[in-house]
Amino acid sequence: VVTRVDVYDSVVIGAGQAGLSASYHLDRLGIRHVVLDAEPRPGGAWQHRWDSLTMRDVHGVADLPDGPAPGRSTDRANRAVPHWFGTYETQHGLPVLRPVRVRTVTAGGDLLEVRSDAGTWLTRTLVNATGTWTRPFVPHYPGAETFGGEQLHTHDYPGPGHFRGRRVLVVGGGASAVQFLGELGPITDTLWVTRREPVWRDDFDENSGREAVAQVLDRVTAGLPPASVVSVTGLALRPQEQAAAQLGVYDRRRPMFSRIEPGGVRWDDGARGPGQPAFEPVDSILWATGFRPAVTHLAPLHLRSEHGGIPLLPGTADVQTAVTAARDPRVQLVGYGPSASTIGGNRAGRAAALAVRRQVTRETVRPA
Ligand code: FAD
Question: Which of 35, 307, 318, 366 could form a disulfide with 12 if both were Cys (CB 3.0 to 4.6 A apart)?
């Protein structure tokens, strides 16, 4: 374990889309920094996506700054994106160190101390780009521990073949649930439950995208936990989901159950809906219930508001996204809230680098 005695102008935590974009822009601004990434290899969360997700199935991967993304193809996303990130890191000479998992970030005087299993870094500013993949979220339902079948989360989706011959309950109203049902529906018996009635939209365009991001932006500047993007964009079926749709897979949807039992799930009388059975036997429960921001290592900085989210300062006129932590402007959060997409991560990377420059310059010109 090493303690770095030199002080960096910035430390970026995470080398996914958002972290790489931030590092690229920091480099262009001549800001001395290092990128610490927990993975043994390049690729951010993409290296963990399931094998059946191809570059044709992804919703769209935006270019990195000065680094065009791989196109639509039948290549596996968990190979194509990591390969692209790896090449990008090398071509641009980005200072990525791995594997380095950051455990805590603390504030001591003017400096931030970034502690990891591989050493401690001192820095004037921090760009947090840790994504969400390491924090899968499963809501609590009574009886979950008594279930005799298997429970899996999106994080561990093993591909459709694994579920052949099983009755699968898919939980969640987001894009992953829609995608899983598209793959599973044609080969096995599925049932879908969601907390809210899904909102289907096939008129989603750039303008609606901007509106959706603006809604999430409002939430984080108010200090609320970021909403899932789908809760503001709505869902759409793509050609690869049509076979399942024709089989009525998306129509066999029910509201959330009340509890889990050893052989399946049960609805209380008020919850089950007219004419619906009170109990459904299932072999597998697939929780497509999303992820939470991976920010527990920032807890010692006390960045959260009483509403549970990390409030961000509104963006400036030239950078219309929010990245700066309201409670400590030395800390930038990229890939968080309004920037939790590949396109948002890029934009946030630039905004973070500019904010870091403002912080570092301010410090340098401060009278002794
Ligand atoms: P990540 O890619 O998750 O990178 C974060 C990095 O930080 C990882 O390498 C991680 O190991 C590292 N890290 C985490 N904690 C620590 C720590 N404590 N110390 C050190 N390193 C750490 N968005 C799109 O725009 N298009 C899509 O098609 C799309 N598909 C998606 C599919 C799924 C199943 C999911 C879950 C999300 C999808 N998204 C998509 C959203 C996606 O999360 C973002 O677009 C983007 O990949 C996130 O990039 P990121 O840089 O914020 O995080």
Answer: 35
Q: What is the pLDDT of residues 126-155, one digit of tens each?
A: 999 999 999 999 999 999 999 999 999 999
CB burial readout 353-367, b (16+ within 10 A) else e: bbbbbebbeeeeeee
* Integer Cα distance of 121 and 11 in angstroms: 8
DSSP H stretches of helix in the chain: 17-28, 77-91, 175-184, 206-221, 229-233, 242-246, 342-365
- Complex-level ipTM: 0.98
CA distances from 61 to 33, 51, 337, 355 (A): 26, 17, 17, 25
First-residue to last-residue Cα distance in the chain = 33
Closest CA to 194 of 279, 133, 252: 252
Six-digit token string for 129: 């780009």
From 298, 309, 347, 335, select the one nearest 46 (Cα to Cα): 335
Integer CA distances (angstroms), 351 to 29, 72, 320, in order: 12, 28, 8
The Cβ of residue 279 has, within 10 Å, a number of other Cβ atoms equal to 13
Q: Which residue has the tokens 């989706």?
A: 157
Rounded to two decimals, what is the model's pTM? 0.93
Owner of token pair 């096995």: 188
Residues with CB under 6 A from ligand 1: 13-19, 36-39, 44-45, 49, 58-61, 100-102, 129-134, 154, 176, 291, 294, 297, 335, 340-343, 345
Instruction: Work out the average pLDDT over 291-316.
Output: 94
Give the number of other CB atoms < 10 A from CB of residue 212: 20
